[in-house]
């Protein structure tokens, strides 16, 4: 959980996208509670939240690979 919190705080765009998705979803529920059709807003809000969570999960599961730089080039046949 601590690693997830650090990742989200480091990625300002992820945090912004998560907040926007939650706000759109809350707006959709408020709209439907008033008797209007808010399914489009609900789909957009849940889509934003789910895509953001998938992106965060992918970043957490990916392992950083370190590429060692070559000390010098090896030329064959020279």
UniProtKB/TrEMBL annotation:
Keywords: Membrane, Transmembrane, Transmembrane helix. It comes from the Bacteria. The chain crosses the membrane at residues 15-32, 38-58. This is Uncharacterized protein. It comes from Shewanella insulae.
């Amino acid at each position: 959980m601590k690693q997830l919190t650090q990742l989200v705080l480091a990625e300002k765009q992820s945090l912004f996208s998560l907040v926007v998705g939650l706000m759109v979803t809350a707006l959709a529920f408020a709209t439907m509670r008033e008797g209007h059709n808010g399914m489009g807003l609900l789909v957009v809000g849940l889509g934003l939240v789910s895509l953001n969570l998938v992106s965060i999960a992918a970043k957490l599961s990916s392992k950083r690979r370190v590429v060692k730089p070559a000390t010098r080039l090896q030329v064959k046949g020279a």
